[in-house]
Amino acid sequence: TRARVCVSRLVVHVVATYRHIGVVPFTPHIWTSRTSKRRPLLQRWVSTASQAARAQLRICCCSRSCRSKDMERVQTRTCRPGRWMEVRVGRDVSGGVPRGRARTTQHLSRTVQLRTSIVGQALDNPTAGLSESETDVDKMMQGMKAFLQEDLENLFNERGIDKSKYQEEMEFEDPITSYSTLSGYLLNIQMLRYVFNPQFELHSVERTGKFELTTRWTMKMEFFGKFLPPQIWRPEMAWTGVSIMEVNPETGKFCKHVDKWDSIADNSYFSSEGLQDLLRQITQVYQTPDLESPTYTVLRRFRDYEIRLYRPFQFAEAPASDQRTKGEAFMKLAGFIFGENKENKKLAMTTPVYTTRESLQFVIGSDAGDATITPVRDDITCASAGGGVYAAVKFNGLAIASEVQENTRHLRRRLEEDGYPAGGEELLAQYNDPGTLPFFRRNEVLIPLAMEPSTLLQGT
């Protein structure tokens, strides 16, 4: 009798005995018979798990014998709703699963949990099974998640990570490095710490698989940052990405760590694209003055632009609509910073200078405190920027109108391609004083984004 089984009511856990006894859940897929488009079949499939020596089967719910590339033969003897279904399993062509028998049960609601038994022995409880073990796995993974959230704060400090949660056969891979032992993994961390002076910021930890956790992070580095003074060439580098951490269920320890960078498409080892990304950052020539500037976190760094989350800051603003008025506004704001205010307070120099379509802005540093600094001139106003999410593209040279327009068009085009909604007019940020050679100047075009930071702090 041909069995017609509604897939929405059938999810089967199959018992397979191959030196060990285990239960492995699977999701059935519907396939259509060649002879009739209305004849649903469940694809047959057998595989063995190397460590647990278990088998997964997708069972054919038809009344006749049938063949597939994975199995020699599967025969359904009875298949009726609410009854037992007995399946003869042929030998796996790829080698591994010997001839044997498995018993399954028809699902009563949405899922069937089947307690295993040896071949030929009756099933003791068809509605029990994985609930207890799944709960144990959930507890273990929740503990590993909490461990990462706390332990990764020590990734590059003197304390270091807790080695007890990593097994000795630890596999690590990113686009330009690879290690297969815990000692190599720890050596890589120490090398980064002493050579690049890294700053690591963890944004989120999510469970993305049964035994898998994924972290999202930002890491900043300075090439030979501990050995070279700021006045000498010392490029700043940044990466954002995810780390996929795999847990060994037998040891309860991390056994694999794979880093993926947002800035490249090919994240496999050894990636030429990853090496080019590293060299591009090391050889950057623009300089950033050692002055206070608005605080931001890079949430996404792509090959040619980045997305930042700015914290609120204060600024002084003067109107400027063309090149002549911009020069006048610059001198007025410089006077305000150097003490031309009602409090007669001299403020520290800051960077960058922001230019909008109608004004020039100087950042007010933290030395102003919470006190209000009142300008003497009526055409200077002080305000607070609320921070937010901005996209930024960097370029060196003179920030002439044509260069600014070209970089603005490029950034808006890239945002549209990547699906990030622009939320307002652009800003020009200039970090260096007029005496800096154009080749070494750092300029940026910033565009506000109409999106919440939380959407960028999580996810893969």
Quick tags:
single chain; 460 residues; Nuclear Transport Factor 2, Chain: A; Multidrug-efflux Transporter 1 Regulator Bmrr, Chain A; 3 domains; six-stranded mixed sheet; 6 helices; 24 strands; disordered N terminus
Descriptive notes:
This protein has 460 residues and is of the alpha+beta class. It has helices spanning 131-151, 182-196, 272-282, 323-337, 401-418, 454-457, and strands at residues 14-17, 21-24, 30-32, 40-42, 45-48, 55-58, 74-76, 84-89, 100-105, 166-173, 178-179, 199-209, 212-222, 236-248, 253-261, 296-301, 306-310, 313-319, 353-355, 359-364, 381-385, 388-395, 427-430, 443-448. The strands form six sheets. Strands 16-17-22-24-23-19-20-18-21 form a nine-stranded antiparallel β-sheet. It has a six-stranded mixed β-sheet with strand order 11-10-15-14-13-12. The protein is elongated and about 70 Å long.
